[in-house]
Amino acid sequence: MLTGAGLAFAHAATGVTVAGPILAAAAGGHSLPDTAAVAPVPAPAPTSARPAPNPTLPFNAKLTSDDIPVPGGGVRNGACSGALVAPQWIVTAGHCFHDLKDARIGGRPPYTMTVTVGRLKDTDPGGYTTEVVDVRQSPVNDLAVAKLGRPIDDIVPVALATSRPSVGKQLEFAGWGSLSATVLGPSDHLKRGRFTVSGIGQATLEAQPVGKRTVENGPCPEDSGGPFFVSDDDRTGTLVAIVNTGPPCPQPGAETIARVDVVTDWIREQTG
């Protein structure tokens, strides 16, 4: 079993996902007999437009579930993080979807996984909330793509890295994981931090924090799948890797993160 900062589902979570706004349907009318006096038809009341997604890192995704089956019966909560890579697909950690023996699984999840995209806080009025309807597991690392129940057309998906990063490359991190190594539950706001690539493996990277690590700027439990990316405008970006596992937060040490460039073609085949 994976341990450390990237572990997604080893503990119960207490987070609550706030549903997005619902557009009101226009009210219908009825016809009057020809012999009746016809009153002027009032103009339909204007409907409120859906609030726009938060413009800062709108591609980030928060994943939560409260009905994950456990051995012996019953259910528990859990959470992960991710990033929108196509209008109807996110990338997250493969171990966010598993069976009773914690083996990674594909297809429709055996529990409800709710995904919120386009917010920086649970209380943001914009963004979108939907559910995962299909999962595809990477053949080479702890990464998965998850299909959403609806496409999201007004957020630019994060681009995918196509080449290996160099040692020393600076990356940004974002995630919705716990703010404690012991008191678990997803954050109510997006956490952010900066890291430097310190090692390169066949399908993973190692990354060290820039500056002092805290629970606000580094991966903790339930940050699994959180994006490590580069961005020039704080709105769009290129996904380089995702959170897998690391030291218990906020202790020092390298994060082990799954490389994206080694599966970019595979991701495009799944989501195209």
How would you explain this protein's 3D organization?
This protein has 272 residues and is mainly beta. The protein has one domain (60-271): Trypsin-like serine proteases (Thrombin, subunit H). It has one helix at residues 264-271, and strands spanning 60-69, 75-86, 89-92, 114-117, 128-137, 144-148, 159-160, 170-175, 191-200, 204-209, 227-230, 238-245, 255-259. The chain is globular and about 45 Å long. Residues 8-38 have low confidence and may be disordered.
> Rg, please?
21 Å
Q: Could you tell me the mean pLDDT? A: 86
For the largest sheet, list the strands in their spatial order. Answer: 1-2-3-6-5-4
Overall shape: globular
Uncertain stretches of 5 or more adjacent residues: 8-38
Q: Please tally the helical runs, counting DSSP H or I stretches of 4 or more residues.
A: 1
The CATH superfamily is known as: Trypsin-like serine proteases
Fraction in beta strands: 25-35%
The beta-strand count equals 13
What would CATH call the architecture?
Answer: Beta Barrel
Write the element-wise H/E pattern from the N-terminal end onward.
EEEEEEEEEEEEEH
CATH topology: Thrombin, subunit H
- What is the CA-CA span between the terminal residues? 32 Å
Q: What's the number of domains?
A: 1
Helicity level = under 10%
Secondary structure topology:
Layout: E1 60-69, E2 75-86, E3 89-92, E4 114-117, E5 128-137, E6 144-148, E7 159-160, E8 170-175, E9 191-200, E10 204-209, E11 227-230, E12 238-245, E13 255-259, H1 264-271
Parallel strand pairs: 7-12
Antiparallel strand pairs: 1-2, 1-4, 2-3, 3-6, 4-5, 5-6, 8-9, 8-11, 9-10, 10-13, 11-12, 12-13
